[in-house]
């Protein structure tokens, strides 16, 4: 009986089947002095109370619409968590010329970021199961809320180097969000510290603030032309390009979804809708990494 009790946790799941072992089944929740469970660890009851449809009576598809967007915000939270760590790794390289461990860790976390973005892109197919007429049945209740008000997506843009102070106006009603975004504007971006690190290891001759776009692209080209000695850096470059590519894919799928659902209507927040979104398609976080491909020379035969 002792062994049987040890193997059982709330919900009927054997301890360890979720990969956390004692994290779910063997510790005490100090707030309640109760045995920690799957539900209390993940705060499932609180999580499931966060979906509050605005339509009355609630339209069936509004629940899915809310859950998809809440899921995006959770993924954005994880992306910020990981991209901040990648930025810190590059900063360490830039400050101390430390290399192997930091570059490995940056590449590992960037792989996760690309997989998260791949999932984020694929989630649009779930939204596409909603008929345009079904969305219009509750769309009016969303005004003046808008996707432009996603603080975390804007943080991702600022963190990666696409900083546009004019976009802060979308966050006037949220002082905490405004403070976080202003901090992102002031801090060095992932783009900045990546090229700082290249300067430290001797692949970017000019100090980063003085380097031109062409010089940065040439530094990246030089990495690819010396694959034998810079495979770890090339791996990082490939992951940065892939992340960039997937964010652009996310923008495109967003536009396609908007046009499929509401056509050329204006956005709920007063934006120009898909016509504005199309102006964002050419935005790249790391344009020099793309330009370097044009500069590559044919290797000797």
What would your notes on this structure say?
- This protein is mainly alpha-helical.
- 60% of the residues lie in helices and 1% in strands.
- It has 2 domains: 2-48, no CATH class; 60-295, Methane Monooxygenase Hydroxylase, Chain G, domain 1 (Up-down Bundle).
- The chain has a two-stranded antiparallel ribbon with strand order 1-2.
- Helix 5 (60-96) packs antiparallel against helix 6 (100-122).
- Residues 1-25 have low confidence and may be disordered.
- One of its GO terms (molecular function) is L-tryptophan 2,3-dioxygenase activity.
- Heme-dependent dioxygenase that catalyzes the oxidative cleavage of the L-tryptophan (L-Trp) pyrrole ring and converts L-tryptophan to N-formyl-L-kynurenine. Catalyzes the oxidative cleavage of the indole moiety.
């Amino acid at each position: 009986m002792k062994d049987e009790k040890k193997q059982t946790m709330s919900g009927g799941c054997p301890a360890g089947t979720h990969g956390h072992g004692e994290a779910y089944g063997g510790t005490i929740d100090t707030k309640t002095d109760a045995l920690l469970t799957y539900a209390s660890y993940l705060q499932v009851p609180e999580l499931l109370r966060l979906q509050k449809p605005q339509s009355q009576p609630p339209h069936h598809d509004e629940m899915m619409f809310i859950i998809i967007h809440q899921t995006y915000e959770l993924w954005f939270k994880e992306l910020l968590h990981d991209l901040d760590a990648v930025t810190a790794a590059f900063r360490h390289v830039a400050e101390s010329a430390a290399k192997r461990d930091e570059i490995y860790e940056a590449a590992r976390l960037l792989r996760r970021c690309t997989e998260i973005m791949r999932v984020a892109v694929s989630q649009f197919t779930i939204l596409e199961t909603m008929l345009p007429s079904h969305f219009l049945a509750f769309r009016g209740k969303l005004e003046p809320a808008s996707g432009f008000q996603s603080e975390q997506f804007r943080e991702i843009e600022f963190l990666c180097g696409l900083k546009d102070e004019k976009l802060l106006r979308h966050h006037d009603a949220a002082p905490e969000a405004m403070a976080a975004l202003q901090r992102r504007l002031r801090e060095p971006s992932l783009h900045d510290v990546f090229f700082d690190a290249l300067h430290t290891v001797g692949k970017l001759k000019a100090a980063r603030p003085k380097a031109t776009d062409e010089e940065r692209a040439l530094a990246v080209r030089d990495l690819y032309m010396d694959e034998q000695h810079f495979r770890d850096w090339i791996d990082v470059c490939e992951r940065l390009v892939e992340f960039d590519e997937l964010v652009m894919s996310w923008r495109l799928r967003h536009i396609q979804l908007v046009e499929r659902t509401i056509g050329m209507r204006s956005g709920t927040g007063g934006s120009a809708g898909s016509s504005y979104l199309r102006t964002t398609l050419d935005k790249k976080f790391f344009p020099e990494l793309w330009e370097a491909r044009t500069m590559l020379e044919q290797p000797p035969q």
